[in-house]
Design brief:
alpha+beta; four-stranded mixed sheet; globular
Length: 182
């Protein structure tokens, strides 16, 4: 029996075996992102967030072009990145620790996985976008926030006392998905 349904079973090319109509090479019109986020807490419920340094190589360490880096540098962001091609979410989380925070050997949780499909809140005229978020948690190895050239400032903030408009790139929604209140 052949179905007319199209499933999100992605492959570069349909395999030579089986029903090739069950595979697709297309992606949603609005795009599809796979991203890892780090929620680093200090033990008091505060979360490590930072202001991007627009001079840092965010195209390399976070998949952000120059314009987005400038725009998002004005608000608080979680250490995060799109996954690199063929990189696992766990490998991405460890890369974020190294490249954005200068930390190594830090134990992280298994990821909480969140999938969202919708029109970007800040760009309502765009087509629906698909986001797959891998949210990892870890506790800070020390009480003071790290410093790193990728950020102009890193600080532990209390999401419940931080206005949403002060958080960039919809990272307020990531925190909300992880159980934090605003």
């Amino acid at each position: 029996m052949v179905t007319e349904r199209r499933f999100c079973r992605f492959a570069r090319a349909a395999p030579d075996h089986g029903n090739t109509s069950l595979y697709t090479t297309e992606i949603p019109e609005g795009g599809l992102c796979l991203s890892s986020f780090l929620i680093v807490t200090d033990g008091s419920g505060r979360v490590l967030m930072g202001h991007l340094n627009p001079e840092a190589a965010w195209d390399r360490i976070g998949a952000l072009d120059v314009e987005r880096t400038k725009t998002h540098s004005k608000g608080w962001m979680l250490p995060s990145s799109h996954l690199m091609l063929l990189e696992s979410p766990q490998e991405a989380a460890q890369r974020i620790l190294r490249e954005q925070l200068g930390m190594q050997g830090i134990e992280i949780s298994e990821p909480m996985v969140v999938a969202e499909v919708g029109t970007p809140r800040r760009f309502p005229s765009l087509p629906k976008h698909w986001d797959f978020e891998f949210i990892f948690r870890t506790k800070a190895p020390q009480g003071t926030p790290p410093t790193h050239e990728a950020w102009t400032e890193l600080r532990y903030i209390d999401p419940s006392k931080t206005p949403r408009q002060d958080i960039a790139r919809s990272h307020d929604e990531v925190l909300e998905n992880a159980g934090f209140s605003f």
